[in-house]
Specification:
The chain has helices spanning about 30-50, 60-80, 80-90, 90-110, 115-120, 125-135, 135-150, 155-160, 165-185, 195-210, 210-220, 225-230, 240-275, and strands at about 1-15, 20-30, 235. By secondary structure, the chain is mainly α.
């Protein structure tokens, strides 16, 4: 691992009482992360650009911007100061990182992906069958929530903090299941379609409250759940228990911040569609 830091630093209080510092602009150069992001964004730009073909409609600037913004945010979450704080000092920063990887990045990537770009990937029969199963609302809902909750069991959570490969696996599972859970609402392809608007609203409402038990355990526990953070150097003069409670609050606030506007957007789109199409069965005869 290589890293580069620009001077602006934050004081730390170590367990032995000595002082240290962390850069606000410390970036970690994990080859696997940089290669993965380079492949992802490079292939996207190639296929929506030079390799697109004349008969294919180019994506809008909004779509390209959405995809590249998602990739940039992913990079910031996994290589920037959030990564440094989450991997070494603060549970709350780690929770913020997980929220970004599950609730921010996947919707942006899906919104930025044209249907024609994804169709060759799902064309094989076995991929289509698997996709049809995984994107069933109930399956997607249960899969995402099970994976997210399971990784917050101390044995898995701390295992990821102590093992880089295990941590990579955690993040890959988070992002993969997050793409799946967003699919019924944001699917770009008709072969694996979005569910109807009323079902989308119910789906998002249930998602917005699905992790309430985990939030309650993290936020209202009288003890620090993860010994890694109990023994980590302190930043902002915040105790390990207060840091854990802050992490729970970040989780809940982020879920509400993402899902409540999403519910409103779906409702407005549904309302607009109903207004546009008309509902003759409810009209009063003259």
């Amino acid at each position: 691992m290589w890293n580069v830091a620009i001077e602006s630093t934050l004081p730390l209080i170590l367990t032995d009482g000595s002082n240290a510092s962390i850069s606000w602009w410390q970036w970690h150069w994990h080859p696997d992360l940089y290669v993965g992001l380079l492949i992802l964004t490079g292939l996207y730009l190639l296929y929506v650009g030079p390799l697109r073909g004349r008969l294919v409609q180019p994506p809008s600037r909004w779509q390209v911007g959405s995809f590249l913004t998602g990739a940039l945010i992913m990079f910031f979450a996994l290589a920037g100061p959030i990564h440094e704080l989450s991997d070494n000092y603060l549970f709350s920063a780690h929770m913020a990182q997980h929220m970004i990887l599950t609730l921010v990045v996947p919707p942006l990537l899906l919104l930025g992906s044209p249907a024609w770009l994804l169709r060759p990937l799902i064309r094989p029969a076995y991929v289509m069958k698997l996709g049809q199963f995984l994107t069933l609302p109930l399956v997607a809902f249960l899969l995402f929530n099970a994976v997210f909750a399971a990784w917050h069991f101390p044995v898995f959570y701390e295992g990821a903090l102590h093992g880089h490969a295990f941590h990579i696996l955690e993040h890959l599972l988070f992002m993969t299941t997050a793409v799946i859970v967003w699919w019924p609402v944001l699917s770009p392809v008709t072969e694996l379609p979005r569910i109807p608007y009323p079902a989308q609203m119910l789906y998002l409402i249930l998602l917005s409250i699905s992790q309430t038990p985990l939030f309650a355990v993290i936020t209202f526990s009288d003890n620090v759940i993860y010994s890694f953070y109990a023994n980590a150097p302190r930043v902002f003069d915040i105790s390990p228990l207060a840091d854990q409670q802050l992490g729970g609050i970040i989780m809940k606030v982020t879920w509400l911040t993402v899902f409540l506007p999403s519910i409103c957007i779906v409702f407005l789109r549904w309302f607009y569609l109903e207004e546009k199409d008309g509902r003759p069965e409810f009209e009063v005869a003259s």
